[in-house]
Amino acid sequence: MPYLQPYLSPLGPMTMASDGRCLTGLWFDGQKYFPDLTAGAYECRDLPLFGDVRLWLADYFRGCRPCSTPPLQLAGSPFRQQVWKLLQEIPYGQTVTYRDIARQLARLQNSDRAVAAQAVGGAVGHNPVSIIVPCHRVVGRDGSLTGYAGGLDRKAALLRLEGVELHQNANKP
User: Fold this and answer.
1) What's the confidence (pLDDT) of residue 41?
2) Residue 44: how many CB atoms within 10 A of its CB?
3) Which tens digits make up the pLDDT trace of 99-136?
């Protein structure tokens, strides 16, 4: 049975989800692609895992680099799984572009065929575990802030928290 627990972040309310062993979701309430939590059988229970996630998030929002990532179970297509794995490799305080990820995927697949940056954008946008899987660190080719399901204002705030200098041409909420 899936479990849910609310979390009040400095950037607004969030919902954590777990299968009982791993974190399966972390969303800003009402964000784009927020799951319909009324459709299934969920139980609100404060699992030890949720305590670990709250500690991770507290460290993060204090401007510290959390040391250990809670166990994750991300459900998605093989393509999305690859993209989400690459997101987890983006260092704290750094950004990459959708094009960078597309090129990295092509190299991993030993393919001369390009992976569309738009396909990468779709996978990034459907990331089920916000912040911990750092989709906010992906920016447009020119450094602009694009495509964050939690809203561009939150994306900018998360990047500033990590010390990322936003470019003049970046969208500033």
Assistant:
1) 77
2) 9
3) 999 888 888 776 666 677 788 888 999 999 999 999 99
pTM: 0.89
Number of helices followed by number of strands (H, E) in the chain: 5, 6
Torsion angle of the four alpha carbons 120, 125, 126, 128, in this order, in degrees rounded to the nearest 10: 120
| Terminal CA-CA length for the chain | 39
> Can you point out the beta strands (E) in the chain?
3-9, 12-18, 23-28, 43-44, 96-97, 138-139
Question: For residues 145 and 151, is the Cβ–Cβ distance under 8 A?
Answer: no
Q: How many alpha carbons fall within 13 Å on the CB side of residue 153? A: 6
Q: Which residues participate in catalysis according to the annotation?
A: 135
